């Protein structure tokens, strides 16, 4: 009775638990999980970012077509305020920049009363003022209101008036005799600083139009008038001008189309947006 109970329990429990756990758990963790984390993430992280974005994309993306104001053209002259040519801003070169915190007005040489001008401009985030303007059918005579866009001359003015740096409206002004008259305006629409806009104004016979386009070329605001609204035609006046009130407005290009009659275009001088 003393030999049987001592041999049977000691032989079987001691051999089975020691062999099975020792061989299987030791081989699997050492050969399986260790090579996979070191080979997988290391190759993928170094090949993809270094070959793609760093070598090609950042060098090609920021290029823009230059503006038309690399140097002062003989077709333009400063009427009031000040401008600097060949300025750079937001990756664009050959820009015209307004320099003074007052009316900065650039005259464009023309000799036709039926005419269209469009100007591509940007209100930078550095400016504290919010007004730009196009002027058609201007006189060279003094004696009129010199405290506004009239600047002592008879003329029609289309003003792009920005509010709170986020909204814009168009206004029509007439500088006639000794008075400035605002005779029409639009509602406010959304506006962004540091973005290109094109303002376009046409005087053709007794009709006036003014339009504003965003950087995609979409019309966002327009205004029209005829002599029954503004009263005086000023059809014999021919000078053309554009500008902005305050520093840090940028101009990329302008385009002039002269009409020998109410339907025929004569010339244009614009560089395209990129």
UniProtKB/TrEMBL annotation:
Annotated region (Disordered), positions in chain: 1-73
InterPro entries hit by this protein: PT
Pfam families: PT
Keywords attached to this entry: Repeat, Signal
Polar residues bias locations: 12-29, 39-60
Protein's name in the database: Uncharacterized protein
Species this protein is from: Octactis speculum
């Amino acid at each position: 009775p003393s030999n049987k109970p001592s041999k049977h329990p000691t032989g079987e429990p001691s051999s089975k638990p020691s062999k099975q756990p020792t061989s299987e758990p030791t081989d699997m963790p050492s050969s399986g999980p260790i090579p996979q984390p070191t080979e997988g993430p290391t190759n993928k992280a170094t090949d993809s970012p270094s070959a793609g974005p760093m070598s090609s994309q950042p060098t090609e993306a920021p290029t823009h077509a230059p503006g038309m104001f690399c140097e002062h053209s003989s077709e333009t002259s400063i009427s009031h305020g000040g401008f600097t040519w060949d300025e750079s801003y937001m990756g664009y070169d050959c820009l015209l920049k307004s320099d003074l915190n007052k009316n900065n007005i650039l005259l464009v040489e023309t000799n036709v009363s039926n005419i269209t001008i469009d100007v591509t401009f940007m209100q930078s985030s550095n400016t504290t003022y919010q007004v730009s303007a196009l002027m058609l059918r201007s006189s060279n005579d003094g004696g009129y209101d010199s405290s506004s866009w009239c600047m002592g001359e008879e003329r029609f003015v289309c003003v792009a008036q920005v509010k709170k740096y986020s909204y814009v409206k168009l206004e029509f002004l007439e500088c006639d005799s000794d008075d400035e008259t605002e005779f029409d305006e639009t509602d406010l629409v959304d506006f962004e600083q540091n973005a290109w806009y094109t303002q376009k104004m046409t005087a053709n016979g007794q009709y006036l139009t003014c339009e504003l386009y965003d950087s995609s070329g979409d019309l966002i605001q327009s205004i029209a008038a005829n002599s029954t609204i503004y009263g005086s035609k000023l059809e014999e006046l021919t000078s053309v001008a554009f500008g902005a009130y305050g520093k840090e407005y940028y101009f990329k290009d302008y385009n002039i189309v002269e009409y020998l009659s109410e339907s025929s275009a004569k010339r244009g001088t614009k560089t395209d947006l990129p």
